[in-house]
Amino acid sequence: MKIANPPPFMLRFLKWFCKPEYHADIEGDLLELYDRRVEDLGKSKANFYLFIDIVLLCRPGIIRSATFHQPLTNNGMFKSYFIMGWRNLWKSKLYSTLNVLGLTFGMVCFLLIALYVYDELNFDTQHSERDRIYRVITHEKNPNNEATTVAAAGYMLAEEAPQALPEVEMTTRMQRAGRRNLIDPENPVHVQETVTLADEYFLQVFDFPLLEGDRRTALKEPNTIIITEGLAMRIFGRRDVINKNVQFDYMQTPLRITAVLKNHPQNSSFSFSSVMSMATLLNDEGFKREAQGDWASTSFTVYALLREGADPDTVSRKMTRLVHANATLEAGTTLSHSLQPIKDIHLKSAGIADGARNSNVDSIPQGNPVYVTIFSFTALFVLLIAGINYTNLTTARASSRLKEIGVRKAIGAVRGNLIRQFLVESLITTVIAFFAAMLIVALLLPAFNDFVNKKFELFTSAGLRFWAIAVALIIAIGLLSGGYAAMLLSRYNPVSLLKGLKLKTSGDFSVRKALVVLQFTISTVMIIGTIVLFMQVRFLNNTDLGFDKELMVVIDVNVARARSNFEWVKNEMSKLSAVQHVSATSRVPGEWKSIPRIKLKKEGSTGELQTAFTIAADKDFFSTYNIQLLKGRNFQSDADTSSIIINEAAAKILGITDVSDEVTIPLVARNQFFTPIYDDPTTAFGPRVVGIVKDFHFQSLRAKIEPLIITYHYNPIFPIDYYSVKIQPHDIQTTLDKLKAIMVANDEAEPFEYHFLDNQLALFYIEDQRSQTLLGWVALASVVIACLGLFGLATYSAEQRLKEIGMRKVLGANFLSIMALLSKDFLKLVLIACCIAFPIAWLGADLWLQEYAYHIDVEWWFFALAGVIATGIALITVSYQAIKAAVVNPVKILRSE
Amino acid sequence: MKRVQLGEFEEVVLLTVGILHGNAYGVSIKDEIEQRLNREVTVGALQITLRRLESKGFLKSKQGDSSESRRGRPKLFFEITAYGKKALEYSKESRDELWKALPKLVLKLK
Questions:
Q1: Would you identify the CATH topology of the domain B8-108?
Q2: Keyword set for this entry (chain A) (predicted)?
Q3: Considering CB atoms only, which of A27, A58, A61 is closest to B51?
Q4: CB atoms < 10 A from the CB of A68, how many?
């Protein structure tokens, strides 16, 4: 008789859910019934009924409990893994220490750098609509084909976009109009604040947290202002200042405080401390009229909140069309808009000028994406080096654990057990190292904060996500580095292990060698990077800039009287014995605010207009800054109003070879810097060149020396803005007090804002300096970690070869030859690493140095030094073990066998 | 004999196991009930009741030899325990009490 078989999946299903102790007889019943039904009803019906029966068997009493199939013994195994892992670590203290130390170093570096990088990458992400907020960028090309990209747009674009474009939900405008004293009228303390203006939607697009006030109405009314708690503390000494009045010293009406903002977090591109309502300006008819025709200016920073799912490219094209439909552009000018996500403002704004601000307002500080990338990679590399260390040390020690593995296998451990055991071991090491690293990070954090100028706290500032990522990555590294060893060690055949056969580890050893090479390659690249950075920063700070920057106090002109009455101020200052020179200028060499540019050409020349930077100065400028006059003469008197002095670069592009040539400065290209002093703004300014000065670096060394026009302080282009005071080196504080007294005597509202020029110049390169130090430390750590690994390997290899060394000594080998025997393997690896590292480092350094117009050359000795350092450290590390092995008495080693 | 309450189906199963005396296993119990009482019994309902009765102590089970007709799967034979018998008796007595208490008239009305 043919036996009909039920579909196997049904029985498997039954077996899967049924309690094991019930399974056999229930299945028996079912099968008995099944056979009977097949006879009576046929196979398909029998199948159907079987299926129904099985489904109806899915009842709580019959379904087994979910955890039941986990044999309890597994937990016991894990406990055993932990105990064994712990004992193993404890037994070989040297290797465990090396492992933990290496991992700890790696993690400390990784965590610190990761904190920094994470912060840089998460700028401006505190707003809830961050993914929908964009900054409007204007790309403009004037008839001379000069392109500008500015993060600003016109008033009306922001006004009309939400109505005209369905994708735009809301827009807001912001403007930084200049710097003024903001005071409590009842108790005036003169401190300069940036005058920031924004419209009523500002607090709706962005959710800056408010301590007090209503987000929707705070900026609606004219003559209202919102301030941050920090500013509130500074002006009033308390935070509950809502509805109190403050006043900018140039305005007639006081401003009512309608909201108090929390201070900005450190990862915010916004740094304003107060925002005045734009409605305040709209009271002014002139502003109103101008604003209503303003489609194509770059006077406002416009932020747009797009609707869900809107495509920024499409929207920006529509914005461009909207502007073109309404604005009449100058012939030959092209204009288009693009939208930049706000999270890109910090790192991806290269080539975008920060617009809508007065020239005396600092631009938004930018992050350097190059450094962020470099740091991310170094952080990962250091962690990688530490992981490699672990792998190397563990596999190197494999043979001392072969017996253990053999016995384990012989009494029934399958490969999975052994792998798990090794993984648990590496996990224990990782966790110990992690806690040690956390402790060290916590200790180092204050110093690190000082150094990178941030305010990290261990758990609050980076947030849960950061720690989740960091912990996951670290555990992954732990498992990965333990994983290779686990795979390798659990592979061997137990019989050969127990017979005491030596391992054929050639394959494994070459992997280990490759890993050592990798470690040292990375370390050497970092060493070279540090050297290059160090040399470049030193070069930047020590290059002769062509002017005197030491002991130069630069005092800002912040009140009108300091400008109009400058002759008196200068005179008073020069009377002080500690003051060597005083000069009044519009900008200073090494300027940190923007230097205005003008267009000009040589009189009678038919060529194109040339662009040059401009500084207005008095006749003491050159003596104060010790700038060398090559040809012609200095300014002499007020008759020099239309005299200019140019630098060599300007002389070159203008084609001026001798003094007394006349140049024409026609209407300057459209920008906010130009304020003509003549009644007729179209009148060209035709000054005469009276002198040529030697080129000096009036900008950062990243840029080439550009053409520069120095005009007389009374000139149609720009008024004076600074006093530069060259002082004597002794008793600086007293001198500063005296200078302040003079300024205050001139105008009591004087806030006395001053800088030391050399400090300001150093700020240009602070990022580089910081990176140099950071990279230096990381390089050090990576070398130390690599050396810890090397030390472990050397120790191990010396141990392995003790017998060989004993024999050799007996046969007459001397100390040096034994040293050489033990060291040369490792040295070879380090040398190979150097050979790989040099070209990589050379390429990287060259690429980075291109950012600077003035930079050092990459010289051969950088590489030589790095090579010597890497080899030297490796040699010292290895030789400790080599010497130990070489001086041991051979009798002691050989006796025992 | 407190708190011994047999459900209707439980009682049926328990009685059937008694009837089958010595040959009571899943399929035979199912067949017996279906024949005598003319009602459908699913394997699931039967099995869960058997297990419940066993866990309450009314039944005990014994694994039989594997048999050819069941493709080598063993039969699990059930037997009533003394406790199970008591439970049945108690159940019957309590019903009888109730029957006795029932006024004759009520029945005649039918």
A1: Arc Repressor Mutant, subunit A (1.10.10)
A2: Cell membrane, Membrane, Transmembrane, Transmembrane helix
A3: A61
A4: 10
